[in-house]
Amino acid sequence: MNRSVYITKLASYYPNEPVANDDIEKFLGLINDQPSKARPLILRNNQIKKRFYSFDREGKTTHTNTNLTRLAIEKLFDDKFKQQDMQLLSCGTTTPDQMLPPHAAMVHGEMGGHPVEINTAAGSCSAGIQALKFGYLSVLSGNTTNAVCTGSDRFSKWMQAKFFKEEAEKVSMLEGGDGMIAFEKDFLRFMLSDGAAAVLLEDKPNPDKLSLRIDWIEQKSYAHELPACMYYGAVKDENGNFIGWNDLEQQQWAGESAFALKQDTKLLGEFIVKKGGEFMKELVTKHNIDVENLTYFLPHLSSQYFASRIAKELEVLNIDIPSSKWFTNLTWVGNVGAASPLLMLEELFNSGRMKKGDTIWMMIPESARFNYGYVMLTVV
């Protein structure tokens, strides 16, 4: 099979004006009317300066996840590629607006237009890449000649103080303290952001401007070895057993913040870099990657804290990628989950910095239950 798949256009959408660090709790609210004790430490480690929220200062919603995704997709359409030309819509997200219908169906419904094949990828940070791979395989196989793939997330509403109110009161009564919510939850509150990225895949490159040829997309899960690390719609009991929302009593949903996004930071720190490095080393051998001649390395970082740890792991693995080749936009857009890898790529692609022959290696770690994605691209 002598076929290739090309990224011919990328677009992004961020809601409202960026929110600076000093304004975070003005938007999200104070838990138990107390500023977070962990906030200064978390912000110092993640080095995020700005993020985007899909609601205003009064807490009124301005965008749904479906809205964000549609608005990013619409930027792909022009005289050369119209909405009616789209054959496949593949959408990845962590934070759908509802459990059912699936996210891609809601996006298609809001867009209107004509019948298309749809696919929804559910997960956390790698969901956007899973959506991209579905589109890539469709075009590669000849099932379609194009695909629109997206990554999007709207975490901000989940991070509002009102969703932690009952748990904070419960902790305060039990411990006689200030009702401080666990560091694992604050860790995410001051990191996450909202936005969407959209990618157009076609079976031919742009005739008059640069495109990205997808050389390969590889993914691997380590869920068989490791427990859940980031989760929502569930809790862990005192023995670490995982209990889904439908096995909880209704009062536990609010009382234990079952639907709040949670992160086991100890588990994260112990395994997220290590397992990603194992897979990376395998791929260097499998694809005979010339690491020295890579042009760009795009690691998805949930926090800048992990950059130095990844660099040390690469040194141990003898994979030399100097910091001058790294490209991230975490500091000025925040961690947008499933959208982040594609938002990085979109910014680089539209920056005017790339030239034919450049190579781009993307790394997407997902801590939910340790799934990893890697993408190799060549500028053509």
From TrEMBL:
The keyword Transferase applies. Transmembrane segments: none annotated. SUPFAM superfamilies: Thiolase-like. Residues 286-362 form the Beta-ketoacyl-[acyl-carrier-protein] synthase III C-terminal domain. InterPro entries: ACP_syn_III_C, Thiolase-like. Keywords: Acyltransferase, Transferase. The keyword Isomerase does not apply. It comes from the Bacteria. This is Beta-ketoacyl-ACP synthase III. The lineage of its organism: Bacteria, Pseudomonadati, Bacteroidota, Cytophagia, Cytophagales.
